[in-house]
Amino acid sequence: QKEVEQNSGPLSVPEGAIASLNCTYSDRGSQSFFWYRQYSGKSPELIMFIYSNGDKEDGRFTAQLNKASQYVSLLIRDSQPSDSATYLCAVSLGGSQGNLIFGKGTKLSVKP
Amino acid sequence: EAGVVQSPRYKIIEKKQPVAFWCNPISGHNTLYWYRQNLGQGPELLIRYENEEAVDDSQLPKDRFSAERLKGVDSTLKIQPAELGDSAVYLCASRSTGHEQFFGPGTRLTVL
Question: Which among A43, A99, A103 has CB closest to B45?
Answer without folding.
Answer: A99
